[in-house]
Structures are given as C-alpha cells and as structure tokens.
Amino acid sequence: MDLVSTPLLPEGFKVPASRNEEPSQRLRRLLATKPYVFGPGVYDPFGAELVMYHGFDAVYFSGYSFAIGHLGTTDMDIYSSVEIADGARRTVSALRKFQLTMAMGDPDKGAAPIHLEIPPVVVDMDAGYGNLFNVQRTIDLYVRAGVAAAHLEDQVMPKRCGHIAGKALISADEFVGKLKMMRNAADDLGHKDFVIIARTDGVSATEAPETKRGIQLAIDRGLRYMDSGVPDLLWCEFPTAERGPTEHFCSEIRKRFPKARFAFNYSSSFKWQNEKNPITWADLGELGVGFIFITLALQHAAGHGMSVLLDDLKTKKEEGYMALQRKEWDGSDIPTKSHHLFTGVPYHQHVGKEYGAARLSEDMDEHLEVSQVV
Question: What are the tens digits of pLDDT across the range 197-212?
Fold first, then answer.
C-alpha cells in the first residue's frame, strides 16, 4: 500500500495514495482484477465505515435499507432522488473523513494508525424517480456526491421491491432511453468511468408490454439492454435462491455477449440456510458475475444485535449492558468498542491544537484512568 501526505493530517501522518483516485476508476480496476467484487448493503455512514474498517471491496448503498433506516418503511418508492442522493453524499464524505481519523490513531493512548482504503460506493437508483429527465438530475446528484456506480431498474413508477408481488415493467425502449441518459449525463460531467448497472425484473413481473413472461422475458430484456451498449453490468432479479435460473440467464446472455459481466443480489429475502445446494460466490464469479452484494446485510445484523441488547436490558437491567461491554472488550477486534476512537475524537483534538483552537484540543482532555472510561 502506497502512502502519501495530506494537508488534513499533521506532519508525519499519511493516508493510502488511492485517496486521490476517482471512485469509479477504482471500482473498474477492482472489477478488472478480481474474480468478483463484493459489497455489503448499508443504509448510513456508520455502517459504511464498518464495511471500510473490515476491508471489503465496495459499499452497496441499498434502497430498501435506506427506506428502513431513513423513513422506517418499506421499499415502494416512498423516498425521493434528493433524499437518497444526500444519504449517499454523506456516506462518501464520511468514508473520506474516516480514513483520516483512522490514519491518526490515538497517539496519547498508544493506538497505532490504521491505513484503510476507501471502498467505492454503489448506489441504488430504483426506477429513476420519474422520467428520463429525473434520471438526468439523479445522475448529476450521484456523480457530484462521489458515487462510483448506480443501478437502474425497468419497473414502472411507483416501483416495488424486487421480492414483493405486483411488479410491472415500462417498455424496453423507454428503459433504454433512461440508460442512455445515465451514460450521457455522467459523461457530460466528465465521469466517463461511472459504472452503470442495468436491472430487469422481468422474471417475476406480472405486467409488461410483451406477451412473454418469466425467465424468457428477462433474457430478452437483458439482451435488449446489452444491445444498447450502455450497461457495464447486467442484473436480473430472481424470485428465489434456486441456482438454475441464474445459470440459465447468464449463459443465454453470454451466447451473444461472451464478455458480459453481471451483478447479483445475494438477497436477504431468501433463506439461504435452507438451500440444499446454494450457489456460491465463487460459482457466481465463474458465471461472469462481477459485483455481488447483500442488500439488507447490515440492517439484519443491526436488527439482531439491537434486539439482543434490548431484550437483555429489559430482563437483566444494568447487567444486560455490562454483558455487552464485556463482549466488546474481551480482546475481539470490535472497532466501535471505543466510540471516541471510532468517531475520531483524537484526530479532532490533535488537529484542533494544530490550528490553535485550544477549546477543541487535546489539552482539554480530562486524562481519566483508561480502566474507567473508553
């Protein structure tokens, strides 16, 4: 890992040189050099920072997760383009700041600097939040936010989660127009490397202009979208975890487009633990899948963790919280056990002193015993 100086860190501290690489270029490099790129699904900056800390290739900013985390509701086109674009912007900004704070460590408490790569952020764009001019505006927001890639789906508006019944499709021609607008809007902003993912919900759509339904509709749609020359990755949303349809879709697309790459949702809607022969990520890579993600990965983890704690607090009271702290501090690599270190208090105090802001500096530290406070 090459390290470089930055004016936002005191002398002697450095960050990975890739800080200065465009996110979309980094994602393309990863796609070109790895069997597949994996990104856990997040809905806020905190989750994205954890993904970054644990060294994943990418962050997937999930629309369903955002609907839960931002509005406490479901994935049925209830939020707007501006809302999710702002969520993505805050997330990208947080990752850049997190890289700085981790590279600082905590000199006073002997916490060494940690040099973390900034994962490119792939963002859900749903059905585009309107017509092709809404798509144009959304791409403008995403590109300026520092997003590396976005995916667009061929549903009518208001759209539905790919695993909720009642999906209807717009015409293939209209969708291709939206894809072309994505490409041209990004290019106009000087981001010709922006990665575009085209998604079809053809497999389980109940309404579409075509007479075909099911997997054949999805294949026909996928070929039509690839014919446009726009998609960098093609995504077919499947109703179950069964491997057969995935293999069939990818092989049929590759008959005409041998170098086609795919995106695959290792969906939280499926009970993978009940599959007798679940498709593996290595299998997907061999099929040509370049980007794998779990839409609600961190939402399920957060729901599980918070529910366990709340149940313990209700039944065991203060002992319930102390039990959590024992788990955090038992020697495991739980980066959030010191919320001050994770959120960058040492960085802010040290830089505050460098800038002459005494009230913000480490001089105001109370120097309490480390056995008493985090």
Answer: 999 999 999 889 999 9
